[in-house]
Amino acid sequence: MNLIVAVDNNWAIGYQNKLLVKIPADQRFFRNETIHKAVIMGRKTLESFPQGLPLKDRLNVVITSDPNYKVTDAAVVNSIEKALEVVRDYDSKDIFVIGGESIYRQMLRLCDTAHVTKIDYAYNADAYFPNLDEMEDWVITGESDEQTYHDLVYTFYKYERRNNAN
After folding, report:
1. What is the CATH number of the domain that holds 99?
2. Residue 132 in contact with residue 115, Cβ under 8 Å?
3. What total number of domains does the chain contain?
4. Which of 7, 62, 77, 148 could be cross-linked to 82 through a Cys-Cys bond (beta carbons 3.0 to 4.6 Å apart)?
5. pLDDT tens digits, residue range 67-105?
6. What is the per-residue burial (b if ≥16 Cβ within 10 Å, else e) of 134-155?
7. What pTM was estimated for this model as a whole?
8. Is position 95 within any domain?
9. 153 - beta bridge partners?
């Protein structure tokens, strides 16, 4: 299973339920990686999307503790185990965990590939992703050239669990 995330220098991912920054190339990368696949997210991540609507052309699985939460065109579940049941017919390489902080932390142990966009800047933030560079079982297996968007510098990285990396 994969996860996909954009982080700043401190591995921050958001502030007040919003992305730290929107970089068009990163958004294209996200779309290209997840289109026609399954995405697993928390309720607040879904609600941060435009109009709070699920992503088009994907199986959207929303995890929430609210038993009355309903969303058109998404599977709403109340546990990670139930989310995994919903995506069981998908190849694990076609399943992406897309946030937020709590869902990433709970599902990181289930993932073997992480697509991380690192933004060379430190934002004011209140949500963070675990620092994979400090975890012995994760290794960088791919790295793009440095990219720029206005005055921001960023790089796409692929991490894999060491026991799965070549």
Report:
1. 3.40.430.10
2. no
3. 1
4. 77
5. 999 999 999 999 999 999 999 999 999 999 999 999 999
6. eeeebbebeeeeebeeeeeebe
7. 0.95
8. yes
9. 148
